[in-house]
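Case 605 in the screening queue. Each case pairs one protein sequence with one candidate compound; here the compound is zinc ion. For every case the pipeline is the same: read the inputs, emit a complex structure as tokens, and attach any notable structural observations.

Predict complex for case 605.
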Amino acid sequence: MEPIAIKIDGEILDLQTAKEKNIDLDSAKKIYFENSKEALEVIRHSTAHLMAQAIKELYKDAKFFVGPVVEEGFYYDFKVDEKISEDDLKRIEKKMAEIAKRKLDIQRYEISKEEAIEKFKNDELKQEVLKHIPDDRVSIYKQGDFEDLCRGPHVPNTKYLKFFKLTKVAGAYLGGDESKEMLTRIYGIAFADKKALKDYITMIEEAKKRDHRKLGNELELFMFSEEVGGGLPIWLPKGARLRSKLESLLFKAHRKRGYEPVRGPEILKSDLWKKSGHYQNYKENMYFTTVEEQEYGIKPMNCLGHIMVYKSKKRSYKELPLKFFEYGVVHRHEKSGVLHGLLRVREFTQDDAHIFCMPNQIKDIVLEVLDFVDDIMKSFDFTYEMEISTKPQKSIGSDEIWEKATNALKEALTENGQQFGIDEGGGAFYGPKIDIKITDAIGRKWQCGTIQVDFNLPERFELSFINENNESEQPVMIHRAILGSFERFIGIMIEHFAGEFPFFIAPTQVIFIPIAKTHKDYANKLREKLLDMGVDSEIYDKNESLNKRVRIAEKQKVPLIAIIGDKEIEQKTLAIRDRREKIQYNIDEKNFIEKIKEKLSEVRF
Ligand SMILES: [Zn+2]
Ligand SMILES: [Zn+2]
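Case 605 output:
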């Protein structure tokens, strides 16, 4: 099998470039036509060009900006006079397939930047691209009569581009700059074989069915309102029920693990944000307000409140580690374009904790947090992976303490039996961190919680404790969130469970359906009993057929449906449909209550 590209010194090159540079193919890593990360990068980028060529053939006036490979496939930004909608994607796809079948060689040649400026003199988008290229020479790729400015690498021939799909059309500002014109952006995906493409399409369709915005609306969990403003979720009764169950379970779990609840204010003087460095480094993401001519920042993070708690009295090594936690409401400015249901909002609540400790306690603390993470993720059937980010070029703190902290994180992960990736140089300037990525039921990965070691804030706020030798020493601060935020985590959970929540957090856990009016008292009695146990139930006694009422309950994805009739009252039993276990059975009242207790105990944190 012929390779489609090679990789040398970390750079992927197409075969033509390799040949022109006299690179001995045997000395380089060969990239074959398969679904490897490197091959997909080349295939997807080449498919972006194929798409551009197809668009050019369909829309003569089309002009193209850039077409990079992104996490999920590729896109190309361009402009045409007509408005392009989802319906046009099929037509473009068809044209792409037709061009691919022409088996055009993809050829590269170089010209000077001046020549390129001249060559594309009637194309203002290409001029914009050229402005950002520092090199004197640029490369042009040619396939048939279509030419595009590009760095490559590309597959050698269009015949390789068979398994692709255009997924979405959107608007995008030129270079992401809101003051510039709006271009059209088409997203697509490509693979090296039919099966991988088919699996991907199935996953996308499944993801659409599970879309938390759609389910959130159908299940009456939350809403957004233009009147209120974008990115500001409004929790409806059922969503608030779910959320408060999650909150109270997690509250107890924190208490059991030695965390102390604390609470900081919503707005803090700007001087304090200057002291912390947020004002200098994070200002664009913050909101501000003025009270009696004094500027205040609305908190985008909860750290400063917790620092104040730490500083409220003299601390001794005997108290450490100190673990403070808060369901901290934060506000961050996000551009309207990136807002996305509960996943990207402007106001959210973090399950935030700050642990103040001695440097030699970092490892044990991280081990404890990892154990906490595991309990939570297992309760929700999430698998997850971890990644450590190490010292970036710009950083504060001595090399020695960085190394110590990074090793502590690595040791904790290893001891915990976790496989983990390393993002070299990807840490925050103030310390190394661990990111927790969860995988949902349909294989998508989501970044949620993080554990961050911080040397910066303790220094800026002159935190101290008295050590064993009666000297003053600086503690380390660990920022830690496990869910990340309730909004995001619940959004992910809705999609993960497709709305079929585990019993212990389901907004409505049981629905009673009395067959006749005379059966309602019994249902009411049971409902009160359940409420005492913290279990939410509803009674469906509408004047509708039994079947219809069962159907409504099913649609609400309620875990248990209990039907009550004469026979049930006489025998003190219930006819149960267990939608999670997909079984039906009759059960007496006492065992029903036992069953509920059993289901509540499925939570492991
Ligand atoms: Zn290209
Ligand atoms: Zn923090």
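Case 605 observations:
- The chain has 19 helices and 31 strands.
- The radius of gyration is 29 Å.
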